């Protein structure tokens, strides 16, 4: 049993690091057949191994079935809170891979409750990891921000470096989206400290991703491109970090499509396509980059089509928040290139989120385009109240312009009417 436990831990660690070959080799060497007919604890361990093997083979349905069987068996024969929490977290991980947001949240919350009951900080942090990732990907930004701020007191107490790193990454990006740049920077600093403490440079690269994200959200596309380029160069020259290169290159291409020369952006897109033709995570960012390149080349219809395909691809991959953001880029492009405000896309995106700062700004622009300065002012006021550090001097000047137009429109009324109504 101890050998199997050690094997499962090692295989899980290798799987977290993306080393599927090593994880598979360990699992194939475990005595599963003998344990399958043993006492309940052996059966529980066997189900855990079978679930891991199914994940390695890409059979998420089989992995889910093994884990649900394991959870039911544990509730009957081994109902220890932390053991149950571990199974709930394994299910959360499986549902994250499958993009099943609601099921992920249900099991991550169960694990959180069990961890809180026992006071186990590492299990609690692991539950936060999955909640933060799910909230960010699904566009539940307010929930992600609340979790990020609530979790701050326990971060230093947690010893599970991987869970802490994932939590810090997704929390920092959610904080960026709401303009909470100061705590986001603190979380980025904590990520870099993890790299120094663990001697694993991957955490420094993840920290760079959170900074790239902040720069992109702020519209600093050239700076985001330069950071992505330097991060990719460092990753390519570091042993063991090549698994992160596609993500860095994809972000570099997207940022370049808006903040570098068209030749540079085109070269990066072609590099992505030729170097990683079978990477299923790349079609969406490639389409997004192609969309912005086409728009800059004055190919309006083609650019919008690429962006719409990118939005659909992100949503299909379970990345609703990124899909929303590409939707905002579609609205921005249409506001600049069409005579009438794109209310169809604005209404479509508004139905998918309670509030997003870029959407509020775009709504204001759409109202102003129709000379509805009351609606424009109201939309921009909401952005000012909820946008935190995203609110800029430029936004303030635009708001004052809208208010000025409204004030001028009220001048005849403010002059008053005579007793006869004239």
Structural class based on helices, strands and sheet pairing? mainly alpha
Total strands: 0
Number of helices in the DSSP assignment? 23
Order of helices and strands: HHHHHHHHHHHHHHHHHHHHHHH
Largest sheet: none
The backbone outline, from C-alpha atoms, is globular
- Proportion of residues in helical segments: over 70%
Head-to-tail CA distance between termini: 95 Å
From the alpha-carbon coordinates, what is the Rg to the nearest angstrom? Answer: 25 Å
Give the DSSP E fraction (strand runs of 2 or more residues).
Answer: under 5%
* Unreliable stretches covering 5 or more consecutive residues: 413-422
Kindly report the average pLDDT value: 88
Structure, described:
It is a single chain. By secondary structure, the protein is mostly helical. Helix content is 78%, strand content 0%. It contains 23 helices and no strands. Helix 8 (121-138) runs antiparallel to helix 9 (141-151). The longest helix has 18 residues, at 60-77. It is globular, with a radius of gyration of 25 Å. The N and C termini lie far apart (95 Å). Mean pLDDT is 88; it is low at 413-422.
Features:
mainly alpha, 422 residues, single chain
